[in-house]
Amino acid sequence: MTAFLLAQLDLRIEADPATKRAAELFRPLDPLLGSVVARLEALAAAERGQDVLLLQLQEELTELPQTSAVVEQAVAYSIADRTSNFLRGSHNLHDAPLAHKDALYVRDKAREATTKQQKLEREREGRPIR
User: Fold this and answer.
1) Are the beta carbons of 81 and 87 closer than 8 angstroms?
2) Predicted confidence (pLDDT) per residue in 87-130, tens digit
3) Strand, coil or helix: 99
């Protein structure tokens, strides 16, 4: 009786395995209800999968600013090193002054130029073509 009521009322309550199996057997008696339940379960499973992917994406996005800052600093150092030759013949990586004032200057100038360029491009996109 419990299994029949579980199937007909589509209740999701804890029951022993035999009652759950009997409820599954009663569900096919009403094909429409069984179809709806199957689709809802598939949608719920897909939503859980999407939630997992969304959490992974959020974790990756939280790492993006740090990664971007590291790349930006390394590129600025590389540019400044081309002009100042920081290592002067040394090949020891530990001697590399990554936070050298010239590298920071190049980084700040690159940031300013990028900001100006982005502003210019936004303004151009907003103008109508004549």
Assistant:
1) yes
2) 676 666 666 777 888 888 888 898 899 889 888 888 888 876 66
3) coil
